[in-house]
Design goal:
SAM-dependent_MTases_sf; 216 residues; alpha/beta; 10 strands; transferase; Methyltransf_25; 6 helices
């Protein structure tokens, strides 16, 4: 289940969240990533996990048949709903770590942007099994997330015994949060997904990565 600290952090920064997409050095990568996401999810019935402000919901909706955008935070959902997204987008409050039992057969793809990095390394196999059991065999899974880049990424503050990396993030109000944020290599991702998925495809950019696969 999502930690209270992580949920509180994202609720607190909801209004400022999209500033991360304003960094000048990331614009070329973002353009490529938006095109890739729209392309790989074209025509799909998509469940989006942790949709946040709806930035990537808007991208997915351009080409998907439909999108159910979900998040655990009311603050994030309110911002996403205020974007004026097209009619093929609906919203629901949902904990991405604790999916309900009524999703089976309703979607052909699941998308999560900047979410996998918050799943503890020791919980990742279990999480993939949950996706498979709740959403069904052969569903398309698409993940995008950050690559770590010195000078652009928030500095890693510590690494725990399981190999998870953590960052300290400070809000505009001066509140300090420790946030789990992993930066897996391509080889680590391929090894992690090998037992749970097939047709694994990776796209590594300087600031971001994309992984798509079919859950076995």
């Amino acid at each position: 289940m999502i930690t209270d600290q992580l949920a509180k952090y994202y609720a607190t920064i909801a209004q400022q969240y999209e500033r991360v997409y304003d960094k000048p050095e990331r614009q070329e990568d973002l353009e490529v990533l938006r095109d890739k996401v729209a392309d790989v999810l074209e025509g799909h019935t998509v469940l989006e996990l942790a949709c946040g402000t709806g930035y990537w919901t808007e991208v997915v909706a351009e080409s998907a048949e439909s999108v159910l955008a979900t998040d655990i935070n009311d603050e994030m959902l309110a911002l996403a709903q205020a974007r004026g997204l097209p009619d093929n987008v609906t919203f629901a409050k949902l904990d991405a770590f604790n999916l309900p039992d009524d999703l089976l057969g309703k979607f052909t793809a699941v998308f999560a942007g900047f979410w996998w990095s918050h799943v503890k390394r020791e919980d990742q196999d279990k999480y993939l099994k949950q996706l498979r059991s709740k959403l069904g065999k052969d569903i398309l899974l698409v993940l995008i997330d950050n690559s770590y880049v010195d000078g652009s990424s928030t500095v890693i503050a510590r690494t725990d015994l399981e190999g998870n990396t953590h960052q300290f993030r400070t809000t505009e109000a001066g509140e300090r949060y420790e946030v789990l944020k992993n930066f897996p290599s391509d080889s680590h991702l391929r090894k992690k997904f090998a037992h749970s998925a097939r047709e694994i495809r990776m796209k590594r950019l300087e600031y971001y990565w994309l992984l798509s696969c079919r859950l076995k």
